[in-house]
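Structure in, sequence out. Go:
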């Protein structure tokens, strides 16, 4: 297999040697910063950041409850109430619709 060395030069990057590159001197240089430099997050990015912080602060799962459910399933003792599940799904769907409508 032949290696093709005809790579186009990227703007703001000057070739140094084989496998190495350094920032070119110019406006895109990383060494030049200003107090006026700023970053603005999109509304979606800001929302994702808030969600990530909320998840990080959330409590973990109840391992004792998980273990009890596993044991009940394994022993055939777990009773499923389809009406209760359906009622809860409908309740949550109504809450979501109410929130989305404002």
């Amino acid at each position: 297999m032949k290696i093709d060395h005809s790579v186009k030069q990227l703007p703001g990057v000057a070739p140094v040697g084989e496998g190495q590159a350094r920032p070119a001197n110019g406006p895109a240089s990383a060494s030049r910063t200003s107090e006026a430099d700023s970053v603005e997050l999109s509304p979606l990015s800001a929302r994702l950041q808030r969600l990530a912080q909320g998840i990080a602060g959330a409590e973990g799962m109840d391992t004792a409850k998980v273990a009890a459910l596993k044991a009940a399933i394994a022993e055939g003792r777990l009773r499923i109430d389809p009406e209760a599940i359906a009622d809860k799904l409908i309740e949550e769907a109504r809450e979501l619709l109410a929130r989305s409508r404002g």
